[in-house]
Amino acid sequence: MSRERPNDLGAFWLPFTPNRDFKSRPRMLARAEGMYFYDEGGRALLDACSGLWCSNLGHGRKEIAEAISKAAHQLDFAPTFQFSHPPAFELANRIAALAPEGMDHVFFVNSGSEAADAALKLARAYWQKKGQGGRFRLIGRDKGYHGVNFGGISVGGLANNRKPYGPLLPGTDNHLPLPYDRATMAFTRGYPEKGADYADALDGLVALHGAETIAAVIVEPMSGSAGVFAPPKDYLTRLRAACDRHNILLIFDEVITGFGRVGAAFAAERYGVTPDIITFAKGVTNGAVPMGGMIVRNEIHGAFMQGPAHAIELFHGNTYSGHPLACAAGLASLDLYRDENLFTRARKLETVFEEAVHSLKSAPRVVDIRNCGLAAGIDIDPDPKAIGLRGYEAMRDLFHKENMVVRVSGDTIALAPALIASESDITRMVDGVRAVLARLN
């Protein structure tokens, strides 16, 4: 049931949005079902980015809504400091069962940003427990995105997310290079054949600072928010080996890649590389209720399970950690992923998606296209006098004229269809982008 548009749009300060322009011509979403959003007038808008990379099951899933409603009536809130409730344990067990072998422990938070900061804190605290408190450095990667909290932006590599807020956390100034070179990798289909040696940059940082000062490396297996950069073949394997060589923890930020985006429960499974910590959010509840978390290797968990039994092992947590409504949404979502075999379906759809998005190579102003799983980044030649303007105009045009909702990052259009998307849905997404590119100034 839709509501009338409020008369005053001034109170709500929208995140990551040019507020003044938005409020001059709002893009309001009133309801959603399946692959579509609907505006206040009932106009259907094809969702081409799974909400914000999160609604992997499509919208309006009754099973999730009913589970949330039942939980709200039965147990609207339960503290998980010193107490808990059964669904939190059930969901943790279900998530651990999807994770790589030897990662059997799950810690819940409320978002991907919180998950990243929890993982960074845990890495430093682990080395304290091991008597190696000098390991405090946290190594991120160029163009990495790990949320918006201070830890996440410190290890992140997106300049606009960092520059207004310095100085950032000590020990986070060094970043690995993004394993991508447009001059040699433009229009790569899937995983670049070359580029695994980008992982060797960690050896240089070890030589500069000493391995004994580095706690962890954090990377996205596929860089999503930066514009969809797939890992080169064997890159993650080589990075894992480098971390092992120097006894450094490896964290995979799987907030986007988790729960089917790359045709598996986690990218760690798809690429056969086991990190020490996995962070997740978004698809775990299909975006219906905020939830995030981290999955931890058994050895790390065991390091904290020491000392008096009455003592708190980890001084970290959130009021809403393992919230009953989020757990209900998570359990219902995992049931749907399993019952509809959606991880396998997504993997089978990858080739269709890849062919479709790369058909845009000859479209006006396209300078690069990258794809990974069910995600693609389409780079537009930027206006040198207004970087990001063409991307923003493309997003607006897609909404108003092509009846689509997409994600843009600067001058990159991101497509990330839900795992339930049909081939005709993908065709329409690509046709809509092609039409808009033809009209761009």
Structure description:
There is one protein chain. By secondary structure, the protein is of the alpha/beta class. The chain folds into two domains: 19-60 and 341-439, Aspartate Aminotransferase, domain 1 (Alpha-Beta Complex), CATH 3.90.1150; 66-339, Aspartate Aminotransferase, domain 2 (3-Layer(aba) Sandwich). Helices cover 37% and strands 14% of the residues. The chain has helices at residues 19-24, 50-53, 62-74, 86-98, 112-129, 150-155, 159-162, 182-185, 201-209, 235-245, 267-271, 298-304, 324-339, 342-358, 389-402, 423-439; strands spanning 31-33, 36-38, 44-47, 105-109, 137-141, 175-176, 214-219, 249-253, 277-280, 292-296, 366-371, 376-380, 404-405, 407-409, 412-415. The strands form three sheets. Strands 4-10-9-8-7-5-6 form a seven-stranded mixed sheet, with helices on both faces. The two termini are 38 Å apart. The model has no long low-confidence stretch (mean pLDDT 97).
